[in-house]
Amino acid sequence: MNNQETPIRLPFDRAKRSKFFERTGRRMYLQDVNNIDSKAVNAPGATNAFKQVLVGPQQGWDGWVMRLFTLGKGGCTPQHSHPWPHINYIVKGTGTLYMEGEEREIESDYAAYIPGGTVHQFKNTGESELSFICIVPEEGDV
């Protein structure tokens, strides 16, 4: 924005918004990812892999779960398949995504959709951590 432009101001009534959330029973959730517990992925074939549940039913998002996976240097998820789909976004790092017999390079700002029933695996091939968001239906958060 240059000095001659005027910022856009949208009408916002904080009191009405608060009442709306109270009246409908909706709740908002905000958390620093650094304050969310990280658990090792203990599945056969997983190496140096950690998972954080960012948003799910406990935070008010019924039916879905958004997780952050972090793979340390040389880390990987197991090569596996399951009936539910994945929606993924690579937050940082470099690696590969194996899908249906083909390995593709991935890096920060890549997105991927993995259909249910697809054999897949994430591997960290970089010198630093590989982190990616993974959204699955609630039954997929195992």
Written account of the structure:
- The protein is mostly beta strands.
- It has a single domain (32-140), classed as Jelly Rolls.
- The protein contains one helix and nine strands; from the N terminus they run H-E-E-E-E-E-E-E-E-E.
- Strands 1-2-3-9-4-7 form a six-stranded antiparallel β-sheet, with no helix packed on it. It has a three-stranded antiparallel β-sheet with strand order 6-5-8, with no helix packed on it.
- A hairpin with a 2-residue loop joins strand 5 (94-99) and strand 6.
- It starts with 13 loop residues before the first helix and ends in a 5-residue tail after the last strand.
- Mean pLDDT is 86; it is low at 6-23.
Features:
mainly beta; Jelly Rolls; 142 residues
- Give the radius of gyration: 19 Å
Can you say what the CATH homologous superfamily is?
Jelly Rolls
Structural class: mainly beta
CATH fold-level topology: Jelly Rolls
The CATH architecture name reads Sandwich
Mean pLDDT: 86
Secondary structure tally, helices: 1
Q: Would you state the CATH class?
A: Mainly Beta
Number of domains: 1
Share in helix: under 10%
Number of strands: 9
What percentage of the residues does DSSP assign to strands (E)? Answer: 35-45%
Shape: globular
| Uncertain segments | 6-23
H and E order = HEEEEEEEEE
How far is the N terminus from the C terminus? 46 Å
Task: Please outline what is shown here.
The chain is mainly beta and 142 residues long.
List the topology elements.
Elements: H1 14-24, E1 39-40, E2 47-55, E3 64-76, E4 86-92, E5 94-99, E6 102-107, E7 111-114, E8 120-124, E9 130-137
Antiparallel strand pairs: 1-2, 2-3, 3-9, 4-7, 4-9, 5-6, 5-8
